[in-house]
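Proteins fold reproducibly. Next comes a concrete instance:

***
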Amino acid sequence: MKLAATRGTMFVASLMLAGGSAAAPLVHPGDWPRPAPALPADARLEARISALLARMTPAEKVGQLIQADIGSITPDDLRHVPLGSVLNGADVAPNNDKLASPGEWLSLADRFYAASTATPGAIPVMWATDAVHGDNNIPGATIFPHNIGLGAARDARLIRRIGAATALEVRVTGLDWAFAPSLAVVRDARWGRAYESYGENPRLVAESGAALVEGLQGRPGSREFLDAAHVLATAKHFVGDGGTGGHDEGDNPSSETELREVDAAGHVAAIAAGVQTVMASFSSWQGVKLHGNHALLTEVLKERMGFDGLVVGDWDGHAQVPGCTFVSCVPAVTAGIDVLMAPEGWRQLFVNTLAQVSSGEIPAARLDDAVRRVLRVKLRARLPGEGRPSARPFAGHFELLGSPQHRALARQAVRESLVLLKNERQLLPLAPRSRVLVAGDGADNVQKQCGGWTIDWQGTRPSTDIHPSESIFAGIRAAVSAAGGSAELNPSGEFSTRPDVAIVVFGENGYAEGAGDVPALTYAGARHDAALLARLHAQGIPVVAVLISGRPLFIEAELAAADSFVAAWLPGAEGGGVADVLFRARDGRVAHDFRGRLPLTWPRAPSATAAAAATPLFPYGYGLRY
């Protein structure tokens, strides 16, 4: 999902890359998995849905099929156009203020709810948000490591707990629906969304994604499932976005077998875990846009795999289907999209879709099927009976945002995600009672630690906007000071008193989606940071390198100049977790060993794709221990 301002050029480029209106490739639904239903058949629920459908007008039905962005719709608009859901885009917030307080989010949720239920018997609106590493749009929320780090941790129980903590913080602000998890199986780390994936292994993605679904929604069949402490999850993006050759919104040329066994693995697991919504991918498969692929959306996902929730489109994704525009797209609806995400063009899309229903271009049966799916999800989420958002059990409990318990969980996730790539002469773990020089532009930089999708889309908000938080340097300083040592921060690596060891923290700046696509895995700051490491090393100072990145990078010079090298991924706001692992306890014990293993193959050359490098620098699953 992204901003409308970027859509024009990316839309044209994506159509060109995908081959425009290529003939749909042959699909064999019978060859695809059929996961066991996560929830039993519920005749009473279906009867209730039928009764609601029977009294709905065509306009009310069409409204359920359209989702608008809060930056272009007001609560009062819902009194005149009965849309079924809203979302907040990654750069959108109440009052157009990215630092809006949690109370302002909750207040706006109340106003949207009140407007949507102004007519007696009306069905409440749902609000969706990109909570992809915590409730990351809300100042004060806990910011967890991005998925690539959680893939390195390989701890499904941890991921489930992160999902539950995220759900609770989303509920605090009155929202209902999280656009997570991403289930892409990444085959090329040049893709700007690689860090949103758990890795390149289908089984790892499936296990991790299913765990997050259960954390967000609760376990299906249990009392906690979609209760007041949980939110709707979204399996995204169906299907194949991790196989587009490093091009965002590109074309996946894989065979049907590879699409089924590799790309779809996480979606099968998510359905088995009870996921209630699936987001269609911007990408294409063999030249055909997923938003318009009936065989995959309907015949495979809904009919063969038995998914009975709703399929939502991505940000104006329907407009990329041949014959469609931002405000008109019969082919996406007939292909199987149940909710069209139309951030700005929602009003005209509503008018046009209603006319297409009246003319029969959208068959009545397809309309009713889509609305039934939306209602099924809303009823399972207990939306009609919950009342206004601020009256729900955890709403307004702002002390739960960034709570000590959630921050401790995030810190644990940081510890478990770190991957030790090199440790010459067993430099690590360090004695905390040491004189430590901390250098590099990432050392005291929470913004860099968190990456994209943090307060804003591209991860460009200053570190001061991300709170509560602890930079990697702050965590180091706390650890060594408590043991009687000292830590000096100097980004350029200068010092007045010779240190016992230098820790250099460096890496990628924030990015998201297509803005993060790169032609090669060359590290942009290589010249400066390699020189810094080499200069310290030449002075005989033991050097620990800590790389912050959303993907493997070509680091030959940096690796050679460091005695120890740690891949920290995008650890989020709890940088103290890095110090927990780098240093011994005050009594000399190893308090926390390295546990992380590479979720992506680390290439030897910048031009090699991560998974296809014939002779990788480090293989998938690599990671040293003390």
